[in-house]
């Protein structure tokens, strides 16, 4: 119990600090994670370069802000002539009390448009506890997500609840989520999570030919000769990620590869809040040099 209270107090401290000084919030979080302050004057790693962009650009960059918004990004996808990759939009609401549950289909995916993790995956509406879901959505809607890590692209975002077509199977398992690391309009590699359903998630990086790249801890620790079959549609997904990432020095493009084709997930400009310590140090430098 004591540990939980300290954690809440610590979180409240960083939230308050974000309102006072996003830069100092960023520096102290980085110090806590890596044991040193970030070099924001002459950044070299991917983490540091993203943090610099976050503090100096993302809050005012309207294209970044649009693409970080899970509702408005649909306009950007259409401007890239990739509307065929958009998941069907069922409904949009301003607040949980507006949701017309009767009109929603039996299965759907619901999420707030800001931040991450604010998702309701509903494979069967008859099994959904609607009052509990509304309570959860209301709680999430009151959270200052941007302030946890001073992710300024989310600040003052007009909040929307969006409901989209359900892409998973009847048991509630989502389709495979492919996370493309893109630099200046080119998807360099893709990260795939394996074993999440079994409770032992591991993250592996693959190149454009789907060969394992030993550039993070799980990939390094994979057995010799480790490989996975290349998914059908992966080449198309790389091409989609290439097109969506044009004009950005870095963005992670998340896509689903389904039987119906490639479907858009989200665009992430600060993955792991740019505090990712699971990459190898040399990989962080490599990725940084690519920016």
Describe the structure.
This protein has 291 residues and is of the alpha+beta class. The protein has two domains: 2-164, no CATH class; 177-290, D-amino Acid Aminotransferase, Chain A, domain 1. The chain has ten helices and ten strands. The strands form two sheets. A six-stranded antiparallel beta sheet has the order 8-7-6-5-9-10. A hairpin with a 5-residue loop joins strand 7 and strand 8 (212-213). The protein is globular and about 55 Å long. It starts with a helix and ends with a helix. The model is unreliable at 1-5 (pLDDT under 50).
Describe the protein's topology.
Blueprint: H1 2-20, H2 22-34, H3 46-58, H4 62-68, H5 73-79, E1 89-93, E2 108-112, E3 119-122, H6 130-142, H7 145-148, E4 161-164, E5 177-183, E6 186-194, E7 202-206, E8 212-213, H8 217-221, H9 234-244, E9 251-258, E10 261-268, H10 281-290
Antiparallel strand pairs: 1-4, 2-3, 2-4, 5-6, 5-9, 6-7, 7-8, 9-10
